[in-house]
Amino acid sequence: MESPSAPILVASRSSASILTGNDGHPTIPSRGISMIGQLVGHYRVLEKIGAGGMGEVFRARDERLGRDVALKLIRPASSDNPDHLHRFEHEARAAAALNHPNIVAIFDVGFEGTTPYIVSELLEGKTLRQRLSEGPVPIRAATGYALQIAQALVAAHERRIVHRDLKPENLFITNDDRVKILDFGVAKLQAPTGDGRSADSLTTITKHGAVIGTVAYMAPEQLRGKGVDHRADIFSFGAILYEMLTGIRAFRGETEVDTMTAVLREEPPNSNLDQAAIPAVYQDVLRHCVEKDPDNRFQSAKDLAFALQTISGTSAFKISDLPDWRPRRRSSWLPWAVVALLAIAVAILALSLLVRPPAPQLTYTRLTFEPGTIYAARFSADTRSVLYSAAWNNQPVRLFSTVGNSPLSQPLQFSDANLLATSHSDELALALHGMHSGQLEIVNGMLASAPLAGGSPREILSDVRWADFDASGNLAVVHYVDGHCRLEYPVGKVLYESGGWIAHIRFSPDGKSIAFMEHPILWDYRAFIRVVDLSGHMKTLTPEWESADGLAWRPDGKEIWFAAVGKGSNLNLAAVNLKGKTRMLLDLPVAIDLQDIAPDGRVLVSLNTTRLPMEYATRGSKEGVDLGWHDWNSPRDISRDGKIVLFEDASEAAGPNYAVAARKVDGSLPVRLGEGSSGGLSPDGKWAIAISPSQRSQIRLLPIGAGQPQTVNVSGVDHIHTGWARFLPNGERVAVNADLIGHASRCYTVELSTGVAKPVTPEGVVCGPVSPDGHSIIGTAADRSVAIYSLADGTLQQRIPDFDNTLVAVQWTDDGKALFCYRLGEFPSRVYRLQIATGRTEVVQEVKPGVTAGIVMLAPIVASRDGKYFAYSYNQTLSTLYLISGLH
Q1: Angstrom distance (rounded) from CA 866 to CA 813
Q2: 65 or 153: which leads in pLDDT
Q3: What whole-number distance in Å separates Cα of residue 795 and Cα of residue 359?
Q4: With bands split at pLDDT 50, 70 and 90, how would you rate the model's confidence at 7?
Q5: From CA 191, how far away is CA 219, in angstroms rounded?
Q6: What average pLDDT does range 68-84 have in this prediction?
Q7: What angle separates helix 334-349 from helix 301-312, to the nearest 10 degrees?
Q8: How many CB atoms lie within 10 A of CB 491?
Q9: Which domains does the chain have, with CATH numbers?
């Protein structure tokens, strides 16, 4: 179902066959030499230069203006075809409405008798199809061509004109390397706003039932005959860019039907991009263009153009910096710079996705330039400065402040302090001596207040994770007490208590309510956006998001803006009003964390590239072996011989319910065992535990080798927690963390034959390693105190002397006398052997990933019972702080 239309013009004397038919070969004109010398209107035909499915193209002389032009005449055989006549007229009307250097210029339109014609500029050069016959386009040239195409699409789409047939044959490269889009003959003028028709009502099917467009470059919705809009052109653009960079079509099949199937169901092969050494930043742009669902693509050609301008370093958008300021270059930055800067470049492309016609110009001001992680940022009381806490250049977290309009920052005098909030009088709420979780929140922090002008912090309350000031300078806090997160306002008065965890509390502009995120599952980032008034009446505004991070009120109080993942893995910026109506503001290819919104509407965000790699080490080794798969892996167990690591894949590729996978340490590829959050391996190494985030009272046993999964429906609990589950040594029971509604979490054992759950620790005490004889289990209380409990009757058997509550016990040694542990927040991290009888520790192994910048935490660590093998993950987040003006 190739398009019946070919490029409408052009060529040079050096490439007389530049116009081709749909099979890529020259098309023989029907009039040929008989037209030479004739007048068509006031245009003298000089020579025939090509033909297409609808018309013939001639070089002609404009007798009035004395210039050579391209003259296209419709074929006589098509003059009775209403679709062809309509499309021919449509082509002229659409293209003539455009005035852009990258779109072929239409000079005139008319009729010679009953034959319509179009007069356009005459181009010298060759089509992109001809250029691709020579091989792939070098990346710099391809970027230049792509940017020109995108800018032309911006101009067309702003006039609500969709091309619908972008392909290499319809792209012309002039002798001076300018790209021209040809043939708007199948363009569609979108219905103007307010005419009562939606874009979806305007289909791609002609009255005679023919599908318009060229199969290999058509968007999936176009192939299905559904309504299309400007995003169909973006899909076609992505397929073309892929072909320019690799020299291979993005979607290929032996037959037309096979090609259509590839467009509808398959992804362009990454192997071609990797073989062509295409940088990841370009691959991200490509993937964002060719998403099957148009809602997941770039939402405008302007966004696409901005992305290309950004990664090519030619951005014409206004990005505020001091003209003569340049960050100092240091050779030690090189290992992270290539990845981080390219990733940040892709990130800032996403900030334009809020733009919708009519669109204000967005202004981006970059505020930070160091390698590391931003944990929190707020405007000062006068909103002229920005305060933020960050860990730069492998140093501990500190507080910084921007200086006026300068991009330079100065450190404040506070050390080991994380910013929580700022008041109207420039009082700071700080979390002292806290640790960071993988979501950058503070754990076990001491709430303190301090004036921005100077002075030592005044300690207020321990175990505070979030805080915010009301207009009078009083604090609301998230207080962690007895295993529960409590939203307190004022401090001590509980407005709301969660069985999961609460984050990002913010007072409304009128001070009458507090918005927050509630994560109902411990150790999981799924979240609801909720609001509670000062009397404790709570309202849920959104359904559950797969992940959420960052929240602030719009200055007028009508919406709450937040960053969340609806699908995929990147945090997008969304808004919800108090009636629960949600709208998407920015659709990002990488993560954004909303930090603050000023009264004048300026938005403070951090752009984060985050990954959770996984490594493996043997005792005594100096460096780990990379075992990562996708971008978010967490080890759960190691086989007794140390040859297999069981892990959880929580990447976008794994799906919304994660995946359990196993990988041999010999370098072979991982094996996906099944869906779910991973637990541990059975004593014989033949089964792995999977806990479903959605089926919350169910355990699945997945075979490591051949076999079928087994499902165990658990009675006696309402909700089994993801993140930890272990077999007991007999292989007939498993230990899990779970809870009943209205009760705190605790450790249970589950009989696999019956599914009956039995509590084995007090409420609020969760599971740890199981003893090698299967009689005892380590229990960790909410205050991180550790004790040994009986698996028979749940009685406390022994407390471990001098157990540091920053230690995490990961495995019981084979002799039953010691535990392997690691310390939260320590980097580089160490594995310790802790003697149960005395509490004495000795270092067994140091684990340190090869990268250092942006390491938020190193966890979890798992160890074999003999202490010879270790696997670990580390959260690496590289951040850049930006100020955005113009978001609405």
Answers
A1: 6
A2: 153
A3: 66
A4: very low
A5: 20
A6: 69
A7: 160
A8: 15
A9: 32-304 (1.10.510.10), 367-611 (2.120.10.30), 614-795+869-877 (2.120.10.30)
